[in-house]
Design a protein that fits this description.
The complex is a heterotrimer of chains A (371), B (358) and C (151).
Chain A: E1 13-17, E2 29-35, E3 38-45, H1 53-57, H2 65-69, H3 77-92, H4 98-126, H5 131-151, E4 160-161, E5 164-165, H6 173-196, H7 199-205, H8 213-218, H9 223-227, H10 235-238, H11 259-281, E6 302-309, E7 314-321, E8 329-333, H12 335-341, H13 343-347, H14 352-362, H15 366-370
Antiparallel strand pairs in A: 1-2, 2-3, 4-5, 6-7, 7-8
Chain B: H1 4-18, H2 21-58, H3 74-84, H4 95-111, E1 117-119, E2 122-123, H5 130-138, H6 141-151, H7 155-186, H8 191-196, H9 203-206, H10 208-225, H11 237-240, H12 250-275, H13 288-295, H14 299-318, H15 326-354
Antiparallel strand pairs in B: 1-2
Chain C: H1 3-13, E1 18-19, E2 26-31, H2 35-44, E3 52-60, E4 65-72, E5 79-86, E6 92-94, H3 103-114, E7 117-119
Parallel strand pairs in C: 2-5, 6-7
Antiparallel strand pairs in C: 1-2, 3-4, 4-5
Classes of the chains: A alpha+beta (371), B mainly alpha (358), C alpha/beta (151).
């Protein structure tokens, strides 16, 4: 470790970015080899926030284990819970009431919008513009309020449980979501005016952090990061779960493969999410919000794998069951982990400032990587 | 009507009548020194307050509003906190240079205060090479920044300092060239001459498009020289945490912080002086009545108003734009601004020879 | 392509594997020996084209380990699960990170937490834990008297 703190024999500077650094958005530790300002190598050192969720889950029951996953990718905790619920339901072969499915999908999409909003502000901050951060939080607050009323929490929801959702919607839910949609339609235009069209922003992101489609697939880059390279990887389209096969929406892909393409995918994805919510919000059926389940869930022996599309990419929950009340082994295939593995390829050859733009457009959430 | 000029002449007359000659001179020097330092403190506090308020309103929030009326004493409280904090010196640092650096930056900022005309006949030193002096001394600050970066023994600091040096050295050129445009038009390097040459209209108005180009180049260069966004690469917090002052704390950090704002003030004051007429009221050619009304507004207010307007512009940039990358920053200067200002200088020269300006 | 078709195709190309019954995706069990050429075949064969390794994990079965590869083809859109059985005392399998680059990190994770050694991996170090950590936490026989609470 000691020689990593100095310089190497080629006169390159080896510099620690993180674990405490403003643009790693958490405790990510990158050891960067710099030649002047040019990045020659990026080596992530992980584990600063590893809580061993996989080991913990082995001693938690099937009702309990999804609660820890809210702490994985905390910006899409609904979707994490959803993935866990889907895996358990697959094992139990449980049918979910229509109302619960509608609620789940609407909340998933709201979460996606909220996550992308935060990403948008944080990316602009990585590139040196402070103001967008506050604008994005203004709209995110509206979603948070909706969540708070319905789920009782703003970040770690634990609202989606095996069999449906934990309790029924708040009476104001539909009204508030509609207000949000109407408001955000005009605000997304403001986002574009403030950042997307800015010449400095475009110069900072176009051609930066390029990855080809083949490499993106090979690295398993999913979500908006993979789709920015033209890799059609939207789980909602390829392996539809819940209502996604009945909904009309576009899978956004861009061919650029650079930071700007990944940026555009996310911006356009927010519009698609709004589109999905609009299709559902007026048609939520009446009925149960939860299927009848036993108090103690027991999964049959076997493997159960569920895939969902979180705001960052494909989340896989792999449950190995031995027939007991707790999982024998759980593996979370988190999108951030795979996306991070490509970082070295993306950043080498760019400047130090490009590294921040690249990391920003990968949208890394560190607890998701460290689990 | 309030006038700083009268105040100065009253004090001077009183001093000369009560004290013998060398002593009167010494007392004047001491008074000027105290006034300059006091101005520094007040300017720093007010500009930080202004920045926070401007930023807050651009970011749909309120800004400081708890300490004192409208939060006016917030910056004072912050400064008190910084004074009371421990001034850490890192173990591996070059202690002498490390402690000297903030003062270098500060002194460089203070020196440029000398030729600035705050109001009519209210100037510390109306040196005959005023503009040249400003351009020369303002480059000294980069030595302080390099010192800070090198002596901190921190790689972020070093990177920041190197960026800052490259940046300031480059942008000095276009700042100098755009000032030269006005020097050619007014025919003098002396600040008071430049201001007096604008009695019948500010240069930005009577200099036509070439002067407007020079003005824009100057504002960009000043933003870059003061290390402000979108050119704040030296302290780019998302890349270098805090750049050259990463290791500084307490009062030594406060000095860097203060110097940044003083430099903004000075840059904008110079800009206001040479392009917008300094303390010269807004005059239009032969409109005697209009010009007379304008003369009723104290000259100090004209100067402060113009400077604050330019400061606001620079703050506006900071809270709107993302940061440039280091190669783009240098490209902008060497490939665009420098050629433009060189051609512009030729055009201005032609204009001055032919007498096309009003 | 349905599971049955895929099963037939794989049996035709690479005979002699045991398939699991009643799984969502076609699941295939094999020994560590001969895994690498098989993986290369899966990747490069024109009619298989498994170019996307979306999950790589290891399971401790107390008597043996198994490494589970979830593969899919972005072109033909079929999915295959490969389970490689490894020895209890010396769990080792050849790396696939030159075939699917995402495996580089996933294998490091499996090495770090489960103690599977991937031969030929360019940089097989601990990923999350400190370099001098003793033991592999995700194994069933891992004991940590301080941090693990037994109920």
């Amino acid at each position: 470790m000691l020689e990593e703190l100095g310089t190497n024999d080629q006169g390159d500077m080896i510099i620690n970015v993180g674990p405490q650094h403003p643009s790693t958005h958490g405790v990510l530790h990158l050891v960067i080899t710099l030649h002047g300002e040019t990045v020659k190598k990026v080596e992530p050192h992980l584990g600063y926030i590893h809580r061993s969720i996989e080991k913990m889950s082995e001693s938690l029951s099937y009702r309990q284990f999804s609660y820890v996953t809210s702490r994985m990718d905390y910006l899409s905790s609904h979707i994490n819970n959803h993935a866990c619920a889907l895996a358990v339901e697959k094992g139990l072969q449980l049918e979910i009431p229509g109302r619960a499915q509608y609620i789940r999908v609407i909340l998933d999409e709201l979460t996606r919008i909220a996550s992308h909003q935060l990403w948008w502000g944080a990316l602009a901050m990585d590139l040196g513009a402070f103001t967008p951060f506050f604008y994005s939080f203004r709209e995110r607050e509206m979603i948070n309020e909706v969540m708070e009323e319905t789920c009782g929490a703003r970040l770690t929801m634990n609202y989606i449980v095996p069999g449906g959702v934990m309790f029924d919607l708040h009476p104001d839910f539909q009204k508030k979501v509609k207000i949000f949609l109407a408001e955000f339609k005009s605000k997304i235009h403001e986002y574009n005016e403030l950042v997307t069209g800015n010449i400095i922003f475009q110069n900072r992101t176009k051609g930066v952090g390029y990855i080809s489609k083949e490499n993106a697939i090979s690295y398993g880059m999913t979500g908006p990061s993979g789709r920015g390279s033209g890799f059609k990887c939207d789980v909602r389209k390829l392996h539809p779960y819940e209502l996604y096969d009945q909904l009309k929406f576009e899978e956004i892909t861009e061919e650029g493969g650079d930071a700007f393409a990944r940026y555009m995918v996310r911006i356009r994805e927010m519009e698609q999410s709004m589109n999905i919510i609009e299709q559902l919000i007026d048609n939520i059926p009446e009925g149960d919000f939860q299927a009848k389940t036993k108090a103690v869930l027991k999964l049959p022996k076997g493997d159960f794998y569920s895939r969902v599309e979180t705001a960052r990419g494909e989340l896989g929950v792999y449950i190995v069951s031995e027939g007991g009340t707790t999982p024998y082994r759980i593996k979370y295939r988190s999108p951030g982990f795979s996306n991070l593995s490509a970082l070295n390829d993306l950043a080498v050859g760019g400047k130090l400032g490009d590294l921040m733009a690249t990391m920003g457009t990968l949208d890394l959430v560190i607890p998701d990587i460290d689990r | 009507m309030f006038s700083l000029e009268k105040l100065v002449s009253i004090i001077q007359a009183w001093l000369q009548s009560t004290l013998r000659d060398p002593w009167a001179y010494v007392v004047v020097c001491v008074m000027v020194g105290v006034a300059a330092i006091a101005l520094f403190a007040i300017l720093g506090l007010m500009l930080v307050y202004m920045e926070r308020k401007v930023a807050a309103h651009m970011q749909i929030r309120l800004g400081p509003n708890r300490v004192g009326p409208m939060g006016l004493f917030q910056t004072t409280a912050d400064t008190l906190k910084l004074v009371m904090k421990e001034g850490l010196t890192p173990d591996g640092a070059d202690k002498f240079l490390f402690n000297l650096a903030p003062f270098m930056v500060m002194i460089a900022a203070m020196l440029i205060l000398a030729p600035i005309a705050f109001a009519k006949n209210f100037q510390i030193w109306d040196i005959s090479i005023g503009v040249l002096y400003v351009a020369a001394v303002s480059s000294v600050a980069v030595i302080g920044i390099l010192m800070a970066g090198w002596s901190s023994n921190n790689k972020y600091s070093l990177l920041g300092a190197m960026r800052s040096a490259a940046q300031i050295v480059s942008y000095e050129l276009s700042a100098g060239l755009s000032i030269l445009a006005i020097v050619i038009l007014s025919g003098s390097l002396k600040i008071s001459d430049i201001i007096n040459s604008q009695a019948d209209g500010w240069w930005i108005i009577k200099g036509h498009i070439p002067v407007i180009i020079a003005f824009i180049v100057f504002i960009i260069a000043v933003t870059a020289e003061t290390n402000r966004a979108p050119f704040d690469l030296a302290e780019a917090e998302s890349e270098l945490t805090a750049g050259f002052h990463t290791e500084y704390s307490g009062m030594k950090f406060a000095l860097f912080f203060l110097a940044e704002y003083i430099n903004i003030f000075i840059g904008c004051a110079i800009g206001a002086t040479i392009f917008l007429g300094g303390w010269m009221p807004f005059h239009i050619g032969n409109w005697e009545a209009f010009n007379h009304v304008m003369d009723f507004i104290p000259s100090s207010l004209w100067f402060i108003g113009k400077t604050v307007f330019l400061i606001f512009l620079i703050m506006w940039f900071r809270w709107t734009f993302p940061r440039l990358r280091v190669d783009q920053l240098l490209n902008l200067e060497w490939k665009y601004l420098l050629p433009i200002s060189m051609v512009n200088l030729l055009v201005v020269t032609l204009m001055a020879i032919m007498g096309w300006h009003l | 392509m349905t599971n049955e078709e895929l099963k037939l195709k794989i049996e035709e190309l690479l005979p002699g594997f045991a398939f699991e019954e009643g799984t969502e995706w076609l699941t295939l069990n094999m020994e560590a020996e001969g895994f690498k050429p098989f993986a290369l075949q899966l990747r490069n064969n024109e009619s298989l084209k498994f170019d996307y390794l979306f999950c790589l994990t290891a399971v401790d079965w107390k008597t043996h380990f198994s490494v589970v590869y979830h593969l899919t083809s972005t072109d033909i859109r079929h999915t295959l699960v490969v389970k490689v059985k490894l020895d209890k005392n010396d769990p080792a399998v050849e790396t696939v990170c030159d075939i699917w680059r995402t495996a580089e990190f996933h294998e490091r994770e499996a090495y770090d937490l489960m103690g599977i050694s991937f031969t030929g991996h360019p940089d097989l170090r601990r990923l999350f834990l400190e370099d001098d950590h003793v033991g592999f936490p995700l194994r069933k026989d891992y004991e940590d008297p301080i941090n693990m609470i037994k109920l």
